[in-house]
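Structure representation.

___
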Amino acid sequence: MTVEQRMIRLLSSEGCGVLPQSEIGRDSKLFDLGFDSLRYMELIVLLEEELGIEVPDGMLEIDSNTTVSELVRVVSRREP
C-alpha cells in the first residue's frame, strides 16, 4: 500500500475521519473533509503509530488550505 493510500485510509471513516475513502482525493482540503484541530491531532498520532515516523513540528498545524497531497508529500519524506 502506498503512502497516499495509507493516508487516505487514515483520513477516512476507517481511520479518524468521517467520510468514506471514495470521497477523498489528493486535492481534498482537510477542512472540507471535516478535520478541525482536534481531529487533525488524532490523525498525527495515527500517522506516527502506523508509519513509525515522528511528525515534524511544522506539520502539527493545519490551515484551511492544507490538502491531502501536502500531507502525503511531507509524510513520504519521513517514512523509514
In short: The chain has a mean pLDDT of 90. The CA atoms of residues 4 and 72 lie 6 Å apart. Helices lie at 3-11, 37-51, 68-78.
